[in-house]
Design brief:
Strand content: 5-15%
Order of helices and strands: HHEEHHHHEEH
Largest sheet: 2 strands, antiparallel
Distance between the termini: 17 Å
Structural class: mainly alpha
Number of strands: 4
Helix content: 55-70%
Length: about 190
């Protein structure tokens, strides 16, 4: 087994905590009037030494100075965390189910995962995030449109960029919670007999 069930659950917990932290940080970016120094002021003065040079953050100061720029930048931060929230846990679940099935062929755990109503959407999102952020629908084309709660993937979305119009925070977080519930219900692999 590449991972134990407890390692998978710890990863889900870490990813979920990181995502919620990104949500909190987005308030600092969006709500400049309440915080001093605000994000725009901080960006205008901040630099970081990397190897033998300094990287400035001044290019962020302008967009952070207006409401539209703050909204765009905070959304970019959140969507990056949202993608990570789905990709890494999905891959761990898939690996665990495959390893379990290889060790205990009497239970087709990977097939059980693939039969979950959330799986087709999670798989499409994972593939887009892991490759070029474009939806590739080749293998599921004959099953389209696919809908899970408020997320719908249709044939005309093939090759289109993954965007907030396709996948956003509330449904993304709900998808994560479904995957987490599946992870919590995973069977433990019995210890090997000597």
């Amino acid at each position: 087994m590449r991972f134990s069930k407890s390692e998978i659950l710890a990863t889900f917990e870490r990813e979920e905590r990181s995502y919620r932290l990104a949500l909190l940080c987005s308030h600092y970016i969006r709500d400049v009037e309440r915080y001093q120094p605000n994000a725009a002021d901080l960006a205008s003065k901040l630099s970081m030494k990397v190897e033998d040079r300094y990287v400035n953050f001044t290019d962020l100061s302008g967009p952070l100075s207006d409401a539209l720029g703050r909204e765009r930048l905070s959304s970019e931060v959140l969507v990056t965390h949202l993608h990570t929230l789905i990709r890494a846990p999905y891959e761990l679940l898939d690996d665990y189910c495959q390893d379990y099935q290889n060790s205990m062929p009497t239970r087709q755990l990977r097939d059980e995962m693939r039969s979950q109503d959330w799986h087709p959407i999670a798989s499409i999102i994972r593939n887009a995030v892991s490759h070029n952020f474009r939806l590739k629908l080749g293998r599921v084309r004959n099953k389209l449109p696919l809908t899970w709660r408020t997320i719908t993937i249709s044939a005309d979305m093939d090759g289109q960029p993954l965007s907030s119009m396709t996948f956003w925070h509330k449904p993304g977080y709900e998808l994560f919670l479904e995957m987490q519930a599946f992870a919590e219900a995973l069977p433990e692999l019995p210890p090997k007999q000597p």
